[in-house]
Structure formats: structure tokens, C-alpha cells
Amino acid sequence: MYLILKREVKNYIKRPLFWIGIAVVVLMVFLNVRPYLDIHYLAEGENIVNDYPEIFRDGDVFEGYVPTKEELRREVWEEQIQETLISVFQMNHAQAQSLIDEMHEMDIMAACKYLEKYNFYSAYAVYVDTAYHKGTPEEINSFIAERLESKTFSYYFSRKFVDFAGLFMGFFATVLLAALFMQDTRKNIYELLHTKPVSAGNYLLGKVGGGFAVCLIILAVLNLIFWVLCSILTKSSGFEVRLTDFILATCFYILPNMLIIISVYSLISLLFKSPLPAVPLLFLYMVYSNMGSRNAQGIYGYYGRPLAIMVRFPGTFFDTAAPPMVLLNQSFLILASAGILFISMQIWKRRRVY
After folding, report:
1. Which of 138, 141, 147, 321 is the most exposed place for a label (fewest CB within 10 A)?
2. Phi, psi angles (nearest 5°) of residue 58
3. Can you give 48-72 as a three-state secondary structure string?
């Protein structure tokens, strides 16, 4: 098993595609996480200038936005609802104000439901859009300090890192690992392998272990590069950056996905005597995993999908949230990988020539 694993790793390291792929993944991840490396405490007199609106649903702290406090958020929402009632629903100012007064004691969900009586169905979406507003330097610094009281900067950054690293690694692994069983499934080699005194367990664990080791090497390179970048570029702000945050996030949110991709390749390769049918299947699986959906309020976003092989962390930098039940889903992927490998071993044994 170890010899097979070692051979696969050496074969991949010798391929130009391996190094080109690493460079492309590093570049793509960097382009997506670069804005978060600009986050810092604002110096006296420093302002973040842009032409974005004052209120913005997806405003982030590096753009100068901070969460809107609940009292102010309700006030802004009522102002926008009133403007819409006048401009779109053709109410006069007195009628619109009267309707706002009627909802004053209601909570936001009840108020949005109440507005549906007047065919106003997008009230909650208006409320969502008020989530962030442009903050003063004092508000921005206070917000950053508050978020870093209990968690390190790298805790938040590592989530954004695995968001994009998992996305690009999923597609890269699908392309790269297609070659894992390519040589062995050629007719002359495939038949020869089944006459050799190598067990199904040793063969498959060696191949899968080799593919997994290749993914580990790539992810280790990514972790080191972005840990160093994060440490250097945020050093002036005194943010705490830990390598362990990157490693833990990678282990939880990327490695199970790599394992299931390799396991699918093993099953398809032995079933069809070629790994190529797995390529479109895995691409479709990743597209499914990366698709957005609408929540109970009808707001479109990424909320995760059952059995997804990709974990995304949407939202602003300090307010990222993993999809519901993500750790249960990742655990299931590990169990599913074990089941797929077991089935693959049975297929191998049935085709043995003694």
C-alpha cells in the first residue's frame, strides 16, 4: 500500500499540471480574499471613501460599513417603506404615515406580513437591505475591536480562505485526480494488475491514499502561503494570526470533500474501467453544491445544500456563518467515502484472476 501511495505522489509531483494548478488556485484564492487583508484600525483623520450607498445589504468593514443597530435599522426601514408607499403605491403622505403608525408596535415580521394586505410583498427584502451602513472611523474601529475580543483575526480570515480554497480546489481536484486511475484502467495494465498478488485493500487504499496525499500537499502549500500573507499584511494592526485556525478550517471544511471526490473516482474507474465518466458527474455535483436558494422569507442567498461537497461562507467578513448542520454533512461525506471504498473493493475482488 505504501509503495503505491508513494508512487502516485511522485508521479503527480513530476507533472507540470500539478504545479500550474497550484499556481492558478493560489492566484484565484488571493484575488478573492485580497480585500480582507486590507482590514485595519483607522488612524485619526483616516476615512474610507467610496461612492457606495449609505445603506447596503452586503456592505463589509473594509468598505467602511458596520452593522446597523436595531433601533436605527427600524427607523431607516420605516422611512424607506413610507417612500415606497408614496412613490409606488400612490398613497399620499398622510395615508403612508398612518400606515406606518399602525405598524409601530409590531415586530418586523408582523409588520411585513401586515403590509402584504396592501400587496406590498417585498417589505422584508427592504429590511434586509438595511443591515449595514457607512460607519464613522470610531464606529469602524469599535466594531473591529468588538469582533476580535473573543476570536482571532485568522479565525474569520480562515473561513473566507476555505470558502474560496474549497471552491477552486474542488474543480482542480476533479481535473487533477482524473489521472489517478487512468493508467491502471488501460486494458493491458488492468488485466495484469488483477493477476498480481496485491489485495483489493492494499491497492485501493494505496491509490486513494496517494490521491489524498496529493490534495494534502496542495492544501498545505495554500495554508502556509495565506498564513504568511495574512501575518505580514495585518502585522501593522496587531491582529492575532494563528496557523492552527487555517489548519482546523481546512480539515473540517475541505478535506472531507477531497476524500469523496477521490472515492467517487475509485468506484467509477473500477465500475466502467475508466475514470472519465466521473468527470461530468463530479462537475454537476459541485455545481449543485454551489447553488444558491431562497430562505423562508424569500431572500436569495447561499444556505447550503444536503450532501454538498462544497462548503461556502457567505456574508461579510466578521459575520460569516457556516451552512446549517455542516459538520453533520461533512461527517456523512466521510462515512459515504468509506462505503464507496468498500464497494470498490468488492468490485476489485470479483474481477481478480487467481
Report:
1. 138
2. -110, 25
3. CCCCCCCEECCCCHHHCEEECCHHH
